[in-house]
Amino acid sequence: ATGFRNVSFVYSGDLSSFFLWCLFILSLVQNNVITGVYPASPSSWLFVVIAILATMYTRSDPSMGLIAKIQEHLPVSDSLSIQCRTVVSAVLFSTLLWFSLIFTMRLCLKQLLSYHGWMFEQHGKVSNTTKIWAAMVRIFSGRQPLLYSYQGSLPNLPVPTVKDTVKRYLESARPLMSDSEYERMTTLAKEFESSLGNRLQWYLKLKAMWASNYVSDWWEEYVYLRGRGPLMVNSNYYGMDFLYVTPTPIQAARAGNTLHACLLYRRKLNREEIKPSRVPVLNVPLCAAQCERIFNTTRIPGEETDSLIHWQDSEYVAVFHRGRYFRLWLYHAGRMLSPREIEQQIQRIMDDPSPPVPGEAKLAALTAGDRIPWAQARKEFFSSGVNKRSLDCIEKAAFFVALDDDEQGMRGDDPAGNLDRYAKSLLHGKCYDRWFDKSFTVVVYKNGKNGLNAEHSWADAPIMAHVWEYVMTTDSFQLGYTEEGHCKGDVASSLPPPTRLTWDIPAECQERIERSLAVAQALADDVDFHVLPIQEFGKGAIKKCKISPDAFIQIGLQLAYYRNRGTFSLTYEASMTRLFREGRTETVRSCTSESCAFIRALEGGESKEVCRRLFRTAAEKHQHLYKMAMTGGGIDRHLFCLYLVSKYLGEESPFLKEVLSETWNLSTSQTPLQQVELFDFVNHPEYTTCGGGFGPVADDGYGVSYIIIGENMINLHISCKHSCPQTVSTFFHYQFPETTEKGKIETSKLIDKMSLLKLVRI
């Protein structure tokens, strides 16, 4: 199921670990067999064999002579009877027939999943074609799929035509350009389409014929791994704890349950017991390839490009506390440690009085600064001896854990300000207390609040969000705490204490660390962050107007930006392409001519009827673009790949160069709530997840992440930079639709103070 490069194994050496490792390998083999024959099941082979043998005993030949042909060329001993040869030949024929049926079913399912007409139908109006298609998908999908069962049946991402991509690009650029600029860009686009574009397209189609996905490998390498700037703020993102609840104020106990819940998720992941993600309603499967590198994965710095290394398994985590690093084993005598045992081990780390050695406390600043100095320092100071062993321990860990001495959360006399500081802490911390190269870092604060910081290259945010949803709910509702706030369970007396990692960091390396820290600190200090929980309305009120909640928020962001800057901006909204094999993301260009027309009418004092009609048109346009992006009809990944092909061929394209140099001043992304069955917002409204966020993409722009919680809440995470006088995260918030009375959505300077709900209601 893995199929990734640079896969290694971690084996600690004792007998119990050996048996655990053997069981793990056997489980992998079993799952690979089940996944390999899906949508059939291994037991169906026996059914086919029995059916063929039964028909033979009725003196009929279902093979039309093939069994006799196999018998003639069967390389077996003459001592076998004719009847035995016939049975062996029948079994071989049955096996070939079984594989042929599997191949046919998988091919049919792949063709069925290539149909996306269902997505473009009106809500509540399902055509007969879609009904027949849905029935066929259920027939060919098989039963009880494992996590990776659908991988071989997912269609490949199609390559759009150059003509369609150019047309859609010009359409998206029109509201952002003057007449002369648009005319010039149209000329460049037409020249590209009629000349170089067709040649580049031929090479791209050639790649699409043999690659599982013609975008994803290049996207991972050139957008992420070849980036030479800091990962912190620029690439990594964060996820928050519950907004109003902290299950226990004891730091070690919260860490115990959180780490144990992570291990439970990893066990389900290794056994492929996690249900494949699907599009709601019609249960269309999504690609699960990104799940393979959640745990045991590290980004390794290089001078020209970084690399991702994934180990098959790891039995420990690396823990940072007060400038020291520890190895914490999570298994003992072949079993997983209980939450109470992990709490005890965490407490041992916190009670350890030893100080950090010179250079150790701020070592992780190397992962927060520029990549080239880190790659050079790693090669020079961490390629041998004790430093290499300790660095290997961190990089091969299941994940990284940071025990912070700060208290965070929505608390005290300034809950809004503390929530903003909580977000900034998760995003960058002190710039040396997160290992930004690890697939993810679990952060546990002194007051029991927690969160995570995740590296972006190995997967997109919905994958990590799925993990974090499971961890939060398992921690609070499944594992729980005692009345005193400690983890439940017993503690084995024979547990060895966590191991302190040792370092020998020379003065020259310490200087490199300080330089990286200075770069990272300047970047962190420049980040302005604001978290905005909107509790007075949510998707329930919006959907009553028959408007997509995502379109509503996106148009609201456009309106806020226009009031903030007095102009429109090229807007990035991330959309998934996981309907296709190894799909990652595509861009929805949310700023459209339709949304601009609505905002101009709204700000220009047009009548309610005109604004209502324009708003609905803009929302429908946005939803169409989003669906196009999800189904392979986006333009930005296609243009990106055409640009890379031109570079490989040494060709210069003024059109592609200009398109790829455009700045996304407004970068947005929705974090989906995927496992809704885990959250009971009706009976437990206090257990509200706050989602997560990311830093601004442009120095003079905004980064906006949002999550729609239940029916009555939306959380926004808004980031920008202090160094740009035109961007202030809180000012952007004040321009966004605010709330007054329950059921009304009002914005400042809205016509006659009319709520957006009333404005769009028909």
UniProtKB/TrEMBL annotation:
Stored InterPro entries: Carn_acyl_trans, CAT-like_dom_sf, Cho/carn_acyl_trans, Cho/carn_acyl_trans_2
Transmembrane segments: 6-29, 36-57, 87-109
Keyword tags: Acyltransferase, Fatty acid metabolism, Lipid metabolism, Membrane, Mitochondrion, Transferase, Transmembrane, Transmembrane helix, Transport
Major location (coarse): mitochondrion
Record-level GO cellular component terms: mitochondrial outer membrane
Membrane topology term: Multi-pass membrane protein
Enzymatic class: transferase
UniProt record similarity statement: Belongs to the carnitine/choline acetyltransferase family.
Name recorded for this polypeptide: carnitine O-palmitoyltransferase
The gene coding this protein: LOC107555212
